[in-house]
Amino acid sequence: MHIKEEISERHVLTLTVDNEAGTLARIAGMFTSRGYNIDSLTVADISEDHATSRITIVTKGPPPVIDQIIAQCERLIPVHKVTDLTEAGPHVERELALVKVNGTGDQRVEAMRLADIYRARVIDATVSSFIFEITGGPDKIDTFVTLMREVGLVEVGRTGIVGLMRGSEAS
Amino acid sequence: MTQYILTTNDAALAKPPAAQHGPQTTLRSEILIMEQDKKVPEKSGAEILIDCLIEQGVDTVFGYPGGAVLPIYDALFQQKKIKHVLVRHEAGAAHAAEGYARSTGKPGVVLVTSGPGATNAVTGIADAFLDSIPMIVLTGQVATTLIGTDAFQEADTVGITRHCSKHNYLVKDPADLSATVREAFTIATKGRPGPVVIDIPKNVQVATAPTNVVNNAPKRFHPAGEADYIAINKAVELLANAKAPIMYTGGGVINSGPDASAALRELAELSGAPVTSTLMGLGAFPASSPAWLGMLGMHGTYEANMAMNQCDVMLCLGARFDDRVTGRLDAFSPNSVKVHVDIDRSSINKTIRVDLPIVADVGTAIRQMVDVWKGRKYKAQPLDEWWSRIKGWRAVDCLNYPASAAEIMPQYAIERLFNATKEKAPIITTEVGQHQMWAAQHFHFDAPNKWLTSGGLGTMGYGLPAAIGAQLGNPDALVIDIAGEASIQMNIQEMGTATQYRLPVKVFILNNEWMGMVRQWQELTYESRYSESYSDSLPDFVALAEAYGWKGIRCEKPEELDAAIAEMLAYEGPVMFDCRVAKRANCFPMIPSGAAHTDMILHSDQVSGTMDDEAKALV
Question: Which residue of A has its CA nearest to B343?
């Protein structure tokens, strides 16, 4: 007997949660304990009184599992609202990455040229290195990082994505 | 400036030198005190906690003292309204609280110390979580200044219980205690009930806070209540037009309260539909009704499982399509329209896709259905054909077993126990295994809150402490733990608790000298390779009973059984009944692992001896 794999869809969920001790552990741990995937997770305080945080989770699973993930998130006491951006319609997703590249001569020139095309900003430079700051959708950042590998990539830091619904309504 | 306002000079409770433990922090209670009139009376965290418990109507607490809860135990000592029941092991406290809760409908309350006290209670917390039992677990914790230092008896209780409780808290300030306790009781009892853990560091129990703290915390818990009217109408229409309807009910009907059971009986009467129930739901619908099909699922009746498979409309009320109920998912009730009423949205479409989900309190929803049915003057379809098919399945007589004159058949023992006690409407608890399934099959319940068993988690050792809790909540009731000789040993130390509080619980052990259900699976799946399933070195249960101040009775012959049961019932105190039953009997009918409802094994001669890996892996 072999373990079977199921076909998965990528979904972006945003959760409005109480900003209190243990909330992140509760949510992240629920994903682990029920065997759900987390591709990326971001969290930050978003309210004036510091009482509420927004968590953006990118997850994968077959549609019934995604539905369960949402229901299980909603079941947690500190979770006020869960929105499936992927399901809800047009939305924007953005991620920030810091990309460190080492190189001299042509490699260095090429790195700068590519950074310009991708609208990455230089936020640190030495005679032999750059750190680029780039924001965009995950695909754009993936492509940029792949290109940087060719010209001397040293390391990458990524925030994971945040997302909001398009239009005037709150997510 | 000292960090805490101490009511004792105990040096061990005072804050250690700040240099060792980083910057000083100011507690919110301290700010409140500075800002408020100095005359506001103050109480310690422990006293505030006790006040809150009294305010919540708590009359009984199951617990075990230890270092990190001594301030709470001292506050308990100085009051009269709450009775503390001293168990012999914290697992016993949690299961006793479950038994108390399940039999009274009120939340069970547990009080244990930090570290091992809390970890010992975890099985009971997980059990209450899976069976949706309202429970408040108060755990002591090392002082906030010691958290994270691997202090004596420190364990990360909120971390450990995070995913086996409905919610949990670490209270860091006595000023937060009352709001926390109030919210905890709401969360534990409303919506789908469950256990809530409150972890209270020792210094928070000792430090004081003003007693006039008003809880301004926003309400953030909104359980479902009434059902959507349109959905209810649709459900009633489906039920009224069904030619082969079935009601599949669960523990939710019992959790919803006695009114839910009453409404269920009315709806069954109006619709003429047969009723089956999960293990957890037994008693919500009277077993003496002609519409009762018996329990469904792995060890359910042939007629219940066949009717589930063949029905055209399934009304699932407060049940959750557990794997022990559904059998093979792709063969589960293939031709039915499924209506699912559940208070927990996450139970809907979890394993079985349903056609009409209704998120609501099940009792309210059934009552709404009854009202709509009556209001619109629905008439049920003639169900004669459906009932004649059910009659055919009933004729299989699936609970029949080979009788024996030489030895006591375990099914026979349950039958005789039922016969001898049914007039007394006893509360029955069980452990986990064959005896549990035989009890579910052969003991019959006409009222809710009489059947206490560990369904979801399947915890051996549940029955005796649960019986103790039930007896405390129902002092005049006859409470019997139907046990196995293996399970009973898992919390057998609680015999001492029954003795101490003069609780006349009866423990009826079906002793076949095997972990019977394990052996049964080994016979079915592993060609009878009995790996570690024999109950060797059993104690002399009669002598053990006497050692604890109980009465002990042993019975080995079928012809002596009735008299022995009568002797047990006549005795005023606790009794341990060692019923020596046929050693090789197995529990049938049975849907084997990975099989459909229609593939039931009815008798032991149909047992094959091995299974493919897919079936083995399904548990």
Answer: A75
| Contacts across the A-B interface (CB distance below 8 Å) | 41
| DSSP code string of B435-451 | HHHHHHHHS--SSTT-E
| Residue at a domain's end among A23, A55, A88 | A88
- Last residue within a domain, chosen from A88, A117, A132: A88
B17 assigned to some structural domain: yes
Q: Mind telling me how many Å the CA of B599 is from chain A's nearest CA?
A: 22
| Number of neighbours of residue B306 by Cβ within 10 angstroms | 22
Residues of chain B with pLDDT below 50 are: 1-23
Indicate left, alpha or beta for A102 from its phi (over 0: left) and psi (-120 to 50: alpha): beta
Distance from CA of B614 to the nearest CA of A (A): 7
Residue numbers of B annotated as active site: 90, 152-153, 202, 517
Burial group, residue B282, by CB count within 10 angstroms (0-12, 13-18, 19+): buried
Q: How many domains does chain B have?
A: 3
Residues 285-344 of B with CB under 8 A from A: 344
The CATH number linked to B137 is 3.40.50.970
My answer on whether B136 and B30 are in the same domain is yes
Structural domain range at position A76: 9-88
**pLDDT value of position B593:** 81
Domain shared by B191 and B108, yes or no? yes
Residues of A in contact with B179 (CB under 8 A): none
Cβ–Cβ < 8 Å for A25, B162: yes
Q: Hey, are the CB atoms on A1 and B348 less than 8 Å from each other?
A: no
Dist CA B63 CA B75 (whole Å): 14
The string of DSSP letters for B86-100 reads: E-SSHHHHHHHHHHH
Give the per-residue pLDDT at B1. Answer: 36
pLDDT at B592: 87
Which of B163, B168, B170, B330 to mutate to probe the A interface, most A CBs <10 Å? B163
| ipTM of the complex in this document | 0.89
Q: Who's near B522: CB < 8 A, 6+ residues apart?
A: B528, B529, B530, B531, B533
Spans of chain A below 50 pLDDT: none
Residues 214-243 of B with CB under 8 A from A: 220-221
Cβ <8 Å between A77 and B167 = yes
Nearest CB to B346: which of A29, A64, A68?
A68
CATH number of B384's domain:
3.40.50.1220
Spell out the residues 6+ positions from residue A132 whose beta carbon is closer than 8 angstroms to its own. Answer: A98, A99, A100, A101, A115, A120, A121, A122, A123, A144, A148
pTM of this prediction?
A: 0.91
- Beta-carbon separation of A64 and B345 below 8 A: no
